[in-house]
Structure formats: structure tokens, C-alpha cells
Design brief:
mainly beta, Immunoglobulin-like, 4-stranded antiparallel beta sheet, about 0% helix, rod-shaped
Length: about 375
């Protein structure tokens, strides 16, 4: 009696059905892992060969599970240049094979670089035209398919295809602002994006109106000590105005215009002078755009009031011819010192004579010498 035994290994493998490969996102950035997922309805003992569709070598993987259909297989690939890529997967075991291609080509783009936006800190009206320059970090490769959306008046927007940024060149845009934009600081925003990235930049600035035609008008030209002397400050144009008033006695006063635009109303400036004299007033108007300076056309003249003067003749009779007499003009005890004293002499019936005294004190007698053309009595008014 005899027996025979036969041993033979039999490879049992499941057929591969409904092989599918999808990308986690339809877009990927150059140099960044792009994720993919492979699934199937049936299949066991699976090996994969990946053709990413670029110039890279094919890559082979082994599914970690014996029954591949029970668990999706995830892998990544890095694309080195922008393009649209059709990734293909080959799956096989000892008996079966299948292949699949991503349904939609993977769009690979270069990310938008870091952006910088610069412009004028002050935009001047009238005119109001200004230029903003947008630049990207040019150390990397030029970005792909960039769109930029500008918000240039806190509400107005403009979107365009940015060929300059796509070539690592500065993008220059011109805008025009007007009087309605004067007031609070404005911020211009730009948002640049493609399918794989987004960058933004902003720049804050002001719109200001240029100062024009500064006019000074005094309310009175003469005054007494400690009385307020005033003048009116008028500008034909200008925004956010500040006045620096030098009253000529060592006092300097800074006044801000109460309105946004100086043309809205004049500004009044008042100042008391404590000491007699002539004072030159200088006003400087300024804003962030420019400066104007004006000097009051005539000095403020501060004098004591004439309250107590007496007049007497040195001689009571006049010998005529020649008809000459000396008068004594003096101040009373309540009279403060007088300067720049103008006297008009009227002689009965109609003759007049003018004289000027630079200074007259309480204690000093001033002599006026008059030549009479005829026999007349004199009277000081």
C-alpha cells in the first residue's frame, strides 16, 4: 500500500473594480504637497504606480491593507512648476490590473507673494490726482493668474487681471480725490489672489486742501492799554488750518480753525496790550500741505487817553508884527504819559496849524512856538 501527498500554494486575489483617484483640492500650489485619495470597490494585495503627469519619475506604493477596498489610500505629490496636470494611477496584483485618471486636471499655480503698497501721505486738492504703487516680493518666481481687487474710497472697488504682479513688476494705479474726501484719514486696500493663495496690502493717507490768500483785517487800529485789540483772519481756501499769531509784544498764540474748511468762516483773534507802543502783528496759517504768512498792513498803536491837558500863553499880549507867541502845553496830575501826540491848532477865525509831539510826560512843559500871520487869539482844540 502506498500514498502520495501533493502540496501546492494557490494565490487567491480579488479583482480590481471601480478604481478611482481624486485630488483633495482641485488646485495646488507649486512646492507644496498636493494630496490625493485612491479608492476601489474591490481588490486585494494592491500595488500602485503613480504617474503625476509632470516630468517626475513614477512612484510605486504598496497598499498597507490586504483588502485594499476596505480602506482608501492617501498619498501626496509636489509639483515644481505651474500647469494643469492629469495624474494617472495604475493598480495591480498578481492577477488583475486597472488604471484611473483624476476626473479634472489638477491646477497648479505659484502663490501670490507678500505685497507692499505705497503712495503719497497727503493728497492735495485742487487737482487731487495721486499714484499708488503695488509691489510684490520679487525674490521668488512670478505668481500665476493673479487678480487684484482695489478698494480706493472705502466703498468704491475695482477688480482687474494684474499682469504686472504676474511678472514681478510694480503695479501703478492713478486715482483722483476731491473735496468730499477731505476729513478723516482714508485707507486704500488691495486684495490680490489666485486659485491657491491670497495676499493683501493697505496704505493710509489724507486728502487736504491747499491754503490760499490769507487776509488780515483789524477791527480798530488804535487802543489804550489793557483794551482788547482784534483782527479778523480770512483764507480763501484750506483745510485743517492752524493760525500762529505773533502780536509783536512777545505773545504768540496758536488757534485752530473751528471748521474743516477755512473758507467756511473767518477767525477772530483778540489780544490786550499792557504797554503803550506800536506793535506789528504777524500771522502764519499752516496745514499739512503748505504755509502762508501775512503782516498787518499798519501797526496796532497803543496810547494813553488824553484826559487832562492845560494850555497857557507865555505872554498875554502879542506884539505885531511879527505876531509871535509862546504857549506852554502841560499834563495834569491825572494824565498818564502821552506818546505820538498829534495837535491841531486852530486860530480864530479860521487859521490852522499842525504839530507833533513824540513824547509828553506829566512833569515836563512843552513849548510850542507859533508865528501868527495876523493879530489873532489862539485856542487849542
Amino acid at each position: 500500500m502506498s500514498s502520495i501527498s501533493l502540496n501546492k500554494d494557490i494565490l487567491l486575489r480579488t479583482n480590481i473594480s471601480n478604481l478611482t483617484v481624486v485630488s483633495a483640492k482641485e488646485t495646488c500650489a507649486v512646492g507644496i504637497d498636493c494630496s490625493f485619495v485612491i479608492t476601489m470597490d474591490s481588490g486585494s494585495h494592491i500595488n500602485y504606480v503613480i504617474d503625476a503627469g509632470d516630468d517626475s519619475d513614477r512612484v510605486e506604493y504598496r497598499h498597507p491593507s490586504r483588502v485594499a477596498s476596505r480602506a482608501p489610500f492617501n498619498f501626496t505629490h509636489i509639483y515644481r512648476s505651474p500647469n494643469n496636470y492629469s495624474l494617472r494611477v495604475y493598480a495591480y496584483n498578481e492577477h488583475f490590473q486597472a488604471e484611473a485618471v483624476v476626473a479634472n486636471p489638477v491646477i497648479v499655480q505659484i502663490t501670490v507673494p507678500t505685497l507692499t503698497l505705497v503712495g503719497q501721505d497727503i493728497v492735495i486738492i485742487p487737482d487731487g490726482s495721486t499714484e499708488f504703487v503695488l509691489t510684490g516680493d520679487s525674490t521668488g518666481a512670478p505668481p500665476s493668474q493673479v487678480f487684484c481687487k482695489w478698494n480706493f474710497r472705502n466703498s468704491d472697488t475695482d477688480t482687474y487681471y494684474s499682469t504686472e504682479i504676474m511678472q514681478n513688476r510694480p503695479e501703478k494705479l492713478h486715482f483722483i480725490y476731491n473735496k468730499n474726501d477731505v476729513g478723516e484719514p482714508l485707507t486704500i486696500h488691495v486684495d490680490c489672489y489666485n486659485l491657491v493663495s491670497r495676499q493683501n496690502a493697505s496704505f493710509t493717507f489724507r486728502v487736504e486742501e491747499r491754503l490760499q490768500v490769507l487776509i488780515l483785517v483789524p477791527f480798530v487800529q488804535h487802543g489804550i492799554p489793557d483794551s482788547d485789540m482784534g483782527l479778523q483772519l480770512t483764507l480763501s481756501a484750506g483745510s485743517h488750518v492752524e493760525f500762529l499769531v505773533d502780536y509783536g509784544d512777545g505773545t504768540v498764540e496758536v488757534t485752530k480753525h473751528p471748521q474743516l474748511f477755512a473758507i467756511s468762516e473767518p477767525v477772530n483773534a483778540w489780544h490786550p496790550y499792557n504797554v503803550t507802543g506800536n506793535y506789528t502783528v504777524t500771522v502764519t496759517a499752516s496745514n499739512p500741505v503748505n504755509t502762508l504768512t501775512a503782516v498787518l498792513s499798519e501797526d496796532f498803536v497803543i496810547q494813553h487817553s488824553v484826559v487832562n491837558l492845560s494850555l497857557s500863553a507865555a505872554n498875554k499880549t502879542v506884539l505885531w508884527p511879527p505876531g509871535e507867541v509862546d504857549y506852554l502845553l502841560e499834563t495834569g496830575k491825572n494824565q498818564m504819559d502821552l506818546g505820538n501826540l498829534h495837535c491841531l491848532w486852530q486860530f480864530d477865525p479860521s487859521a490852522e496849524q499842525y504839530s507833533y509831539l513824540e513824547f509828553l510826560t506829566q512833569a515836563v512843559l512843552m513849548r510850542v512856538h507859533i508865528h501868527f500871520p495876523d493879530q489873532q487869539l489862539a485856542m487849542l482844540l
